[in-house]
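During the reporting period the student researcher (J.K.) took over the structure-prediction task from the postdoctoral fellow and processed the backlog of single-chain submissions. One of the processed entries is reproduced below for the supervisory committee.
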Amino acid sequence: MTRPRPRLRRFRLRVLVRRFAGRARRPRVLWPLIAVATALCCCGGLGLVAVLGVVGDSGAADAELVACREALGAGDPSALESLDDEQLDNGLLIAEVGLDMAVPPRGWVIAVATAMQESSLRNLPHLGADNDHDSLGLFQQRPSQGWGTPDEILDPHYSSAAFYERMLQVEGWEQLPLTVVAQTVQRSAYPDAYARHEPMAVALVEEVAQGAAGAAAFVGDLRCAELGEVTAAGWARPTPGPIWSGFRTVARPDHYGIDIGAPRGTVVRAAADGIVTLVTCNASLNGAPYSCDIDGSPQVSGCGWYVTIRHGEVLTRYCHLLSRPEVSVGDQVVAGQELGLVGSSGRSSGPHLHFEVEIHTVVEQSAATVTVQRATTDPAAFLTARGIGFECATTPADCDPVHGDRVWTEQR
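J.K. obtained the following structure tokens:
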């Protein structure tokens, strides 16, 4: 059961949301239109999509964000149970300052994740012999590096605003991974550590500003992310279209993803920032190699042309592409970047994207080996928690998972 949250600041944040959103109002597209139905079958995977609807300008944008939350179910409050009231209040304050400065919602997530790494969301004074140089406050900013006086840095409003000001000066910050932006601002000795705080930062921002996880990441007007836009959680829809076959359903227990119906040639995009780890043709017929440059069929085995991207501990896979993908192994990609086009290569009966999500967790480590738990997980729940909605084009039985994650371990 989630404990009560500080109410005063939350009310203040909602007032700011109304004022902030009032600067630019127009009809909001909350969901892309559902694609025309076509029966599909494929090798298995995981996917995301969104639903339809156009809403008029009927009121304050905080109500629209609540509509995002209700439709998407974005955020996971249980992720915050390890935080105490001081940490929650400081996280809310950071989001409040960002909103007051008209910083886009993705910036709030970056700031909160940075403060989690630097201070565990505590406004730390000088710790004597244990202090890291002259670092102080929520963001461990240093007077000797021009962040301000000690008294200024220990004011959470000042330190949060100072972080945002420097973050907004990072050229192209909207196209950079969270850890790169944070490191550019902070110059940390542990530049890769920020990324691990992103899921909790998303949950916290969502908790204090309901619906913000699904808001457009990089626009000054608080609204639901539209097709092709990155959410404040840092994720984007891989391709438009409804889900035709779900993750491990009653009829397809070995289908480890979601099939998204979309017309041939529709752009397929990276779901989040990451590094391309595999680009290959995977198709065979009766044990013999089969071309990925022509349509497959239900008799062909494999995912056809596909791409795998690693996003820290998360891996995403994009199957049945029309032709060789536009990226190569080792490429750094950003959320929303074009990877290729929807096709029907490999085991497929019609154009669609087969999209998978796999989570890797280190469970044991020694000098010689590392034991990793791998889990293919339900994409609907995974992406919903990151601000991406979906719609089932057929029946719940065709879309709803009933068998849970597939989990196994391996040694490396």
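The committee noted the following: The radius of gyration is 22 Å.
J.K. will present the remaining backlog at the next meeting.
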